[in-house]
Amino acid sequence: MKKYFHFICLVMVLSITSFSPAWSQAIRGRVLNSENLEKLTNVSIVVSGSNKGTVTNIDGEFSLVADKLPVTIVVSMVGYVQVIMTISDSSPVDIALIPQHALGAEVIVSANRTPSRMMESAVSIERFGNSQIHRSPASSYYDIAGWQKGVDITTSSLTFKTISTRGFNASGSPRVNQLVDGMDNQAPALNFFVGSFAGPTDLDIDNVEILPGASSALYGPGGMNGTILITSKDPFQYPGLSVQVRQGLMHVDKRQRDKAASLYDYSMRWAKSWRNKWGIRLSGQYISGTDWLATDSSNYQGAGATGKLIAGNRQSDPNYNGVNVYGDETSVDLRLFMASVLPPGHPLLQNPMMVSRTGYEERDLIDPTTKNLRLSGAVHYRLTPKLEAIMLANWSKGNTVYSSNNRYALKGINIAQYKVELKHNDWFLRSFTTQENAGEAYSANVTAQYMNEAWKPSFNPADIGGSWYPQYTGAFLTALNSGAGVADAHRAARAYADREMPLPGSEEFGKIFGQVRNTPIPQGGLFKEKSQLWMTEGQYNFSRLVKFADIIIGGNWKRYILNSSGTLFIDTANAITINEFGAYAQVSKDILNKRLNLSASGRYDKNEDFDPKFTPRFTALVRVAKDNNLRLSYQTAYRFPSTQQKYIRLDVGAYTLLGGLPWVQQFMNVKESPVYEMKGSSVSSQPYTFTNLKPENCKSFEVGYKALIRSKLLVDAYAYWAKYENFLGRNVLYQPSSAQVYSVVVNSVNKVNTSGYGIGLQYRPDKRNSFFLNAYSDRLSSVDSGFIAFFNTPKYRLNAGYNNNGIGRSARFGFGVNIHWQDAFFFEGEMASGPIRSFTTLDALVSYKLPGLKGLVKLGANNLTNHYYRNAYGSPEIGGIYYVSLALGVL
């Protein structure tokens, strides 16, 4: 160790000493790791203030020609402390880079839109980088997000996961902003975030920053509960080729599928820079596996978008509606058909006798193979040392499943994002577009209902004898007249009416299913959806021009083009366009000899369908002592109703989803045919009164403390209180004249409060070992009786983990283990509401480094114990994944 100390001292002397002008203009040398003298490849060496630069080769060596000597060079590599040194002659130099193990030293941008140390963030923030991704047992970087305090994951399928923070969890996470390289990652029409399906590949992720809490003041509408920033790797910082091959095994216990199934995951990334001026990167990833199944057969009594679990099954309840059984949403009162054959006053006509059609299971309707192909590329050009032009494209296509008010099979869905950007040290200007194509996406529920109508209509006046309900009625009465009991008569009637029902897997079933699935809504289950989002955004940082404070100003313009040909929206005749613009500013300043930092932010936004909104934010960071900081913040947030909440018109089987703008009153013709509010099975006696739709808003106060103890233990604790108003939800309306049920978007008069707290510990005793532990809680309060807030959040969650990235003298072997536990809670959803059990998952891996190839072999497992769990009611249960992977060029 003493010789290493002398070496470092020598290098430090060389880095700060200037010699007399050199006769030669050539610069040569090598770069080493200061701790183990390992040669470092792909280290960036740049002549300060110019575009001239190079990178080290496989032996850690570099060569660079300068215009004149002496010259100052900047030596940098991700994960190491940057070195700036002056070279005065042509003698070869050895440069030692010190690994950056320091906790809290990461540079973040999400907290205030400008780079700052994570340790000094004035609001709560969670972050993980590419090194953690490579060494983690998680199957994707989205899963790693679920180990951060204050964060929850909602899983709809193998490749569709949603990150949420501080409550109100749901697929799509409407109260959280998600930005990928500065681009809004929300699908413009389908209204869910596609980061886990269409974002950067796993090999191309630089870091993920999660900002829990209200954040609209800087990041715009939607940031009610948080903002997520996903950043891809820069080709100048991460040059070279990397590949990863991973194969896994799922369904090992055959609980959901007939046999165990393989998971395939192939990734590659290539990046190169020329003369520190041009940079290019290309990456791709292909994932294929047999998806998890939603198999809940519990009996669900629905009333529009609300409902409850009840006793019974298909054998005992004629009106059975299985949670994950599709097609049985069609339900009719049998008295409509018995009244024509039974005398008035007959006992069977006294009370409702609801009977549902027979449905199909999810395995019969959704392709079991999930596929995801992601391609990404970017070209960078440094016009000046401070100004860079970027062209970027992310493209994705595949099959996945999404849970919302239905189970949606997103077959052949295609999402693409394209961006051009000018990025300066002090400002940026970017424009991007999101192009969405639903492909052959369809609703499993609606498709199953139309399949039933295709093989035998529920009721056809032109062919009463060939209709399902008349056949059921006749067989039911016949059985009763033969002496059968009511329950047995219902079973006999169903068997008779279903005698021609096509069996899953049969040729007839495949023919009808294909026909219905490819017929657009409202005659079939297909979405014809090709919508777009266009956005331009800019920001200027005045810190170099204004000395008394740090000031940033920015603004954006956004345009939606909704085009579903009437299958999702009211755009039967023409596409719907929506314009939105916003502007923001932030002022921050250190005072009291930099003991206190104060900041104030404000944002103004205008959506053409609503009045303008202004959201302020105030923060304070108190530097109590070195690496001990107290933070305080008051933040406000809001969200405009989504495109679906404004313009949706979708028949989902048992009811029709409608938006909340005034056009819905004309569509329902409420002046001539009033509608009445439904609560459960009861209907109001007074016509429903409509009110104007407004944005939802939130006010939040937070206090937190972060401390770094002896550079090894990082403690971070927080508590928050929030108040929500103008909740965006739905009311169920019944129209007697048409016997139709509608679910209409409205603002709730209820106000609810949430609160929560959390604490996180990170301990790194040395460069090889690291531990973490965090616990957090979120609570909903002040909820009026009968009000459904869709909070959907466990009261308590706990994460813990240990990682060793080098055992023994060679430090090639490593291992890691992570544990996640969450409390039981009651999930409230539009598709179904029901209990979610508490569960614990265990992820683990062992790894082996291949230093010459910068490679890593991993043998790992997600949900090692294969204890099935789900985190959203109506979504699938998740079992274990066991895998082996080989990654090259990642270390």
Automatic annotation (TrEMBL):
Q: Which GO terms describe its biological process?
A: siderophore transmembrane transport
Which parts pass through the membrane? Answer: none
For this protein, the record's Gene3D superfamilies field holds: Carboxypeptidase-like, regulatory domain (2.60.40.1120), TonB-dependent receptor, beta-barrel domain (2.40.170.20), TonB-dependent receptor, plug domain (2.170.130.10)
Q: What is its main location?
A: membrane
Q: Which Pfam families match?
A: CarbopepD_reg_2 (PF13715), Plug (PF07715), TonB_dep_Rec_b-barrel (PF00593)
State whether keyword Oxidoreductase applies: no
Location of the TonB-dependent receptor plug domain:
119-227
Does the record bear Ribosomal protein in its keywords? no
Where does this one sit in the cell? Answer: Cell outer membrane
GO molecular function ontology, one term from the record: siderophore uptake transmembrane transporter activity
Q: Which residues form the signal peptide?
A: 1-24
Protein name according to UniProt: Uncharacterized protein
